[in-house]
Design brief:
The chain is mostly helical. The chain is built from 13 helices and two strands, in the order H-H-H-H-H-H-H-E-E-H-H-H-H-H-H. Strand 1 and strand 2 form a beta hairpin. The radius of gyration is 20 Å and the shape is globular.
């Protein structure tokens, strides 16, 4: 039981948890502030992964890889938003999820095998080394209390520090922007865009800005994910977007710390349920391969109950959002 507790606590600060927290912060710009039903956040994440990994693989420095990732996401946001931001509700959701799937299928196409690696993707050893060389930690396993991680390679203390530093910075940026005049206009658009338009505000322009900024944050999430794993297009499919939405709604949309808390609760709950199921359910009932889907089902049922009985999420205020009226 003690080992399970350690595994749950470890999951709270892994790079995967941080990456999804970043993606949820980006989605908070889209949905929490502006009310945009963007169902294609995984597309922004995948573009960030490709932009960063390909740049480093071709000999570019890390800073250039990050810039390329951000630029690709911003351009994608502009191209996606230009014809679609006049759509509302379900129509926007359909278009954005289709756009994300287009990015994924283009990435796994054999026509771009030399660039993206097609369905195989880009292996971590092709682009991680420059980041690992920047690590101030020793190139070996480092124990901090009951937790042991490598100092530099892959899912390391170095990546944990960088990932959560990015989360902290983006949370502060979201906090400042959400309380600025710009953020108040976005909240007005979320509540009643016709009223905001009647005040002379360019609603289309504000929506575009929110889409681009949130997409850029999603690209950073993709970079963090790729540094902890690899670049594989199918890892950024539809389930990824649904998970990001789950994290946001779990923690509370339009809240400052909701995306971070939602990511921590979701991934820790998954590890806890999977661990308890492995301890209490015999192999004759559920095999090891079936434990993870079973854990997702239980977590999903719990989230359904949360949405039914507390739709504003853990930290949310029910009076904050018009869609909860």
């Amino acid at each position: 039981m003690g080992d399970l507790f350690i595994d749950v606590v470890r999951e709270a600060f892994t790079p995967t948890t941080a990456a999804f927290a970043l993606a949820a912060v980006g989605l908070n710009f889209h949905f929490g502030l502006t009310g945009l039903l963007n169902m294609g956040q995984a597309g922004f994440m995948l573009l960030g992964m490709y932009g960063f990994a390909i740049t480093i693989r071709e000999g570019g420095p890390i800073w250039l890889g990050v810039i390329v990732a951000l630029v690709l996401a911003m351009v994608f946001g502009l191209l996606l938003g230009w014809p679609t931001l006049k759509l509302r509700g379900d129509y926007l959701a359909i278009v954005t999820i289709a756009a994300a799937e287009m990015v994924r299928y283009l990435g796994r196409s054999q026509n771009f095998n030399a660039l993206t690696g097609a369905s195989t993707g880009i292996r971590g050893n092709e682009f991680k080394e420059p980041f690992e060389q920047l690590s101030p930690f020793p190139d070996r396993m480092v124990d901090v209390g009951p937790f042991a991680l490598h100092g530099a390679r892959s899912t390391s203390w170095w990546l944990v520090v960088v990932a959560w530093a990015l989360v902290a910075i983006l949370v502060v940026i979201f906090w400042r922007l959400s309380r600025s005049p710009w953020g108040r206009v976005l909240k007005g658009i979320r509540e009643d865009e016709d009223a905001v338009r009647s005040l002379g505000k360019n609603v289309y322009s504000y929506k575009m800005q929110a889409l681009v900024i949130g997409g850029a944050v999603g690209a950073l999430a993709g970079v963090v994910w790729s540094l902890g794993a690899s670049v594989q297009p199918d890892s950024m499919g539809r389930p990824t977007t649904f998970w990001v939405w789950t994290l946001l709604l779990l923690g509370g949309a339009a809240t400052i710390f909701g995306p971070v808390l939602g990511s921590i609760i979701f991934w820790c709950s998954l590890v806890l349920v999977k661990g308890l199921a492995a301890m209490w359910i015999p192999d004759s009932v559920l095999s090891q391969q079936q434990l993870e889907p079973f854990s997702l089902v239980l977590v999903g049922v719990t989230l359904m109950c949360l949405v039914i009985f507390r739709p504003q999420g853990v930290l949310g205020d029910k009076r904050e959002l018009a869609f909860n009226d």
